[in-house]
Amino acid sequence: MSIQKVSMISAAAILMGTTAFAGCGISNGNVSILGNEFAAIQAVTDGAKACADDGVTVESNLNKDYRELQVAALTANPAQYSAVTTTNAAIVPLLSDNLIRPLDDLIAKHGQHLSKNQLITVDGKVMAIAFMANAQHLFVRDDILEKVGLDAPETYEEVIAAGKAIKDAGLMDHPFATTSQTGWNLGEEFVNMYLGHGGQFFKSGTAEPTVNNEAGVAALNTLKALTELSNPDYLTFDSNAVQASWEAGEIAMAHLWGSRGTGILDDEGSSEDIVSNTSLIASPTVGGGDIPASTLWWDGFAIASNASDEDAEASFVAMLNGISTEVVKANNDAAVWLVEGYEPAPASAGVFATAAGKTKPYPMIPFMGLMHTALGDELTDFLQGKETAEQALADVEASYIAAAKEKGFLN
Amino acid sequence: MSSALDRSPRSVIILSSAFVLLWVAVASFPFIWTLWGSFKVQGDFFSKADWRNALWGTRTLIETGSTFTGAGYDGAWVQEEFWRAAINTLIVVFFTVIISLTFGTLGGYALARSGRKYAFGLLMIALVFRAMPHITLVSGYLLPFFEWNLWGHLPTSIIVLVAINQPFTLWMLHSFFLNIPKDLDESAKVDGCTQFQAFRHVIIPVMWPGVITTGLFSFLLAYNDFAVTSMLLSEENRTMVPAIAGFLGSTLEEGNVMFAVAAVVSATAPLFVLVMFFQRQIVSGLTAGAVKG
Amino acid sequence: MRHKTFFWFILPSLAAMILFIALPLVSVVVQSLHIEHEQVIVVTENCGPFGCTEESSVDTEATAQLRAEQPLGRFAGLSTYFDRGHLATAEIAEAWRNRDGFGGFLSELYNLPFYKALAFTLTYTFLVTPLVILLGLLIALGVNRLPSLLKGPTIFVSLLPMIITPLIGSLILFWMIDAQGVIGKTLQWVFDDPELSLKASPALTWITLMVYGVWSSAPFAFVVFYAGLQTVNSDSLEAAMIDGATRWQQIRYVVIPHLMPLVVFISLIQLMDNFRVFEAIVGFSAQANATSLSYIIYADMRSDLTRFNSAAATSVLTVIGVAILLTPVLLRTWRDFKGKAV
Questions:
Q1: Which residues, if any, are the signal sequence (chain A) (predicted)?
Q2: Strand, coil or helix: what is A220?
Q3: Interface ipTM > 0.95
């Protein structure tokens, strides 16, 4: 969906908000929200802004680089922002530095209507409220698969077989694509594949890495088989590039973020025969595993520790208004909402199917970010054929250990 | 221009004109391509299917009913209110250039006239300062700025840009002042002027060429800055470059790249007018004063 | 100039630099000598929309206490500088002991992130800097000969590569050089190779980045040289003409010596800027094949967990690298300075 449509929808939400919810039942307090620049998050903050009143100010700073700002902004006392939007990865530094507050008492007071699966609890305390979900899943072109006489693949082995069949039939040179850009994207693909193979990143209860094992090698080999079916430029592929290739009809199968579904299924950038033959299905399993090789992500909000209790309460109420059923209904197609009143749209089918397969959530572990960075940087050499899988994984562990020592996770 | 060079043989004239023509083509081709493409839809300008779509507007015709569309401009300027970012940029650039040049002329003049070892030492230290990667500096600012409530405001970014820009400005202006004969201010001082009076009445009138050239680079630095403005400005104070980055989207969220393209093209237009308007001053500025190392 | 007068003249500039560069620089050096305090890890049950899992978490209370005792973290001396992410002395010693010929040792070295980045950074710096100076000089000489009516527009067009913000400039060029893009297709046609992709091979990626670097920096050299050309003494040129000097000899013996100080100035700035090459790498998504020191810093700062200590150490190494690189130029400047001063 284009920004244009969403801002029209969220404008509608403001109108509804101002008529129905002015005040929101808070009398005073200053609410300031830091968050990502998503269309859906814009809608949420617009909903929160409907709470602005004589005694209540609501401001927001939506910036796609919010993660670079959040730690410093919330460490300051008083915190620059009373509320932040966050995800299962972005919340980790906030948790480790004790920058967000437990929400149990606020929920008891204002949030009785929240469903249990919206509550993100750490050690029994609610630290954030989730409102939307996302996951990478498979996009397939039914017409191309039909031409080679195959059903939609359910395992990566079938994806690879289908890709080879399409290539051999001369339909496409590079039938598969995924977000394999060196860095965060490639790291994420390995995380998906490794969890699909049943791998463990760390020795339980410690920060010691355990990726250099059979599951790791198997995951890398699967990734390599997939990249051989991809365009040779695959190490530069981010979501934009994969989406553009899809819309140009150049690929038949893609492992791509669910949040791109709306854009792929709309009438912009692609022709009717491509869109009508696009199916959004569950992420495949791999290596005989029984869970899809993907990770589930949530987006939610948290309240700063270094905000006054009054501001914290006002922020909590305002954010709840931002994720109210009315806002969600007005912006139904902007995201896969975890809020009551959401009507699953066609673009969300893949995320739901992937979640239904008991896919693991992205690990909310304090040192996972370091592992992710190490994976993203060190795996390229293997994919380019410059070193063995074992050597690449050993490099990952060495790089991770250097980082973890410096951050105090290992000695 | 010197008459000597005008009497070159025809072959040299042709060769050098051809070279300039080639350079003009290489320098302007991406821009002309962008200008043309900004009136197309994303599916054409960033076509994976066939680059010629960007020329003919194949998808633009399908999606909008015409081969040209102003949707990018409308989206950036009307819906996303890009003019706010443009105004912020104007403020940031204007003050950064003015303050940089004021500080820089004073400092550069002093460095050029001092001739002592510590002046040279300062120039060296300025170079070390300039070598510091901006991203490290900026992330160091974040916490103190949040603590002291300085974060997010335009003046904070302006002064940071001035400071980051100072080493270059000092070096460049120092070189210009070395080129202005020392006798000028010395004789003023003999006539009873203080150093500052000498600077004000004798040096300022002749320093403009150097200042204009240095100002041009200060302008470009402030105008194009991303590292400082993207991290130190709040959403309502955002300048053009971070706003454009915002149009581009991220891993999970599809952006609207055509808004960014239209914004870039339309942000270049006033520069064109500016350069055309001041071309005499710029060219004569460059003509009158040479940079000397 | 008297000390006091000098001080008042330089004060605003110096104050800005001390506040916003020197103090942060000191803090960066201090942080590069520290690592974070030990984090106390506990296993907790974490729940969310997708069920509950047993995961490691930081025991914030215990950690906060450690943090209060040592706000800067643990003093680590130079250990960050020598770890695998930076100078990697232990890994190099190991690779040297187990070396499999000199080539094998080099490839081991290239496998370490710092040296991989350094290889590209140095190649880039030493190829792009002279090319920028040469191209800038040629453009300046060419533009200088144009009729004055054409000079203004030509100067504007020449500045375009500098005016278009690198963020967008590299994005658009990135699409143009795509295998399906206008430049990519043209190159495939020129080289008669339909599989040619500038993004896939390391060598071509390096060349692309360098071409972009020359393209985007040439205007700077051009403007400075153009300014310098305006003051070439026409009498010297006349004299050279009368002596029967060819055009090339005029340039060689009159123009170039006159521009020499400018060459020093441009090399100084360009060596420094090219050593910090960064935007193009991100813009062209080239990190698979080419990284630079600045890119390493960026990667450290942009992950979910900011590695400020590591970024600080790389920054200090960058500054030292620039200092080493500039030494020859600076020695020359010092001689000039002594020559010119009082």
A1: 1-22
A2: helix
A3: no
